[in-house]
Amino acid sequence: MPAARKPIISGNWKMHKNHFEAIQAVQKLHYRLDGDDHESVIVTVHPPFTDLRSVQTVIEADRMKIELGAQNCHWEDHGAYTGEVSPSMLAKLDVSYVIVGHSERRQLFAETDESVNLKVKAVQAAGMVPIMCCGETLEQREDGEAESWVEGQIVAGLSGLGGAEVASLVVAYEPIWAIGTGRTATSEDAQAMCGHIRGVVRGAFGEDAAAQVRIQYGGSVKPGNIAELMSQADIDGALVGGASLEPDEFAAIVQYRNH
Ligand code: PGA
Fold it and tell me: How confident is the model at residue 180 (pLDDT cuts 50, 70, 90)?
């Protein structure tokens, strides 16, 4: 992996932890990580919206090197969108990374490639980094359609962006059948798809974008499988769900170089 692509490991807390629990978790994580860890890996945590202000305050007060992330946002800056949160509101809370188009949002909340594309652009316009998710179902994989499906999600989700914009963002490849199931893609399968994604980016946005875009793998990442995943040429990090809820486990994932 070129030095330009610093590994990035992100904890997606989904709808877990109230703000008291979130403060405790980020403090514990901070104590488990040292300067070397932060030197080698960007660590982001993505608590629910209601926790963001509390976690931001703790990160700033203790000068933690953990980056604050969100799990979703709307694409408009303000307006009559009951229940939504805008990119500029997140940026004001010092959020720096926003997950966009997670498969749970696509499957349970009807997000489309079009809305994902609008959100990617809005997150970048607000000065934050999108983590754009893609991934196939088990049926699509068994039917041999995984690569073309993911390619379609990448091309549509990044439509209208320039090479420099694509270079600066993060793509998370998460096969849906591996999320929360304990079933991880083999590192060879994960590498094959992440290599394919980089190739798609190369074809659409050029060599520099392909060399710089960071690609995470997600789906049942654990302390026991992270090192092998991270040793793959096109895997630059991980998007971690269940195992990020427990600070000891998440810290062990961040410290994959030690196992
Ligand atoms: P998991 O979730 O690690 O619990 O499989 C990953 C994700 O949904 O981002």
Answer: confident
